[in-house]
Amino acid sequence: MHPDEFQALLGSMTRLHRRQADIAAESPAEVIWFPDNVTGLIMSPARFEMYCAPIYEYACSVLRQAGKLSFAHYDGANLPIKDQIAAMDFDVMEAFTPPPMGEMTVAEARAAWPDKVLSLNFPGNLFRESAEVIRRWTRTYIEEARDPKGFIIGCTENFDACDFERAFGAIADAMADG
């Protein structure tokens, strides 16, 4: 409805994002996190390429030149934009959420992004399941990852503290079984 105003806003946001990337590159930090939480449910591939890709391309280039690692938070629907994500130069796909909560398996993610570290967000809907179910899903994730290099299991979900010991104990047991 207001294309001129939108373009002005987009230009301002682009300048701000570039400045943030420059500041991060000059900082003593070794790792930079992009907490964007982009999801294919609301961001089409064309819109991603139009609005997100230029920002990521600039930021990743500046950060890589400065020797920084970049993490991008993608716990939403990644399947619709998997090719666009693959083209981005960030190092870690942080919070990638596989089934039964997400729609893209660990094997599909590894195939789509072989050069990225896959930092899995253990699905929050599993925390109320039995320890055996949690162990079974954890073993599936490990098997689908094939190579443990570049594969991290973590949790970015909110969960009830009373589930912590049982759930994380089951995850640890499955990881120890290897």
Structure description:
The chain is of the alpha/beta class. The chain has a single domain (29-177), classed as Alpha-Beta Barrel (TIM Barrel). It is built from 6 helices and 5 strands; from the N terminus they run H-E-H-E-H-E-H-E-H-E-H. The protein has helices spanning 3-26, 45-65, 82-87, 106-112, 131-145, 164-177, and strands spanning 31-34, 69-73, 92-96, 117-121, 151-154. A 5-stranded parallel beta sheet has the order 1-2-3-4-5, covered by helices on one side. Helix 1 runs parallel beside helix 2 and helix 5 packs across helix 6. The chain starts with a helix and ends with a helix. The model has no long low-confidence stretch (mean pLDDT 94).
Features of the shown structure:
178 residues; alpha/beta; TIM Barrel; five-stranded parallel beta sheet; 6 helices; 5 strands; 13% strand; elongated
Number of strand elements: 5
Low-pLDDT segments, ≥5 res: none
Shape: elongated
User: Going across the major beta sheet, what is the strand order?
Assistant: 1-2-3-4-5
Rounded mean pLDDT is 94
- The portion of residues forming beta strands comes to 5-15%
User: Which fold name corresponds to the CATH topology?
Assistant: TIM Barrel
The SSE string, one letter per element, is HEHEHEHEHEH
Number of domains: 1
The proportion of residues forming helix, as a percent range, comes to 40-55%
CATH architecture: Alpha-Beta Barrel
Q: CATH first level: which class?
A: Alpha Beta
Counting helices, strands and paired strands, the structural category is alpha/beta
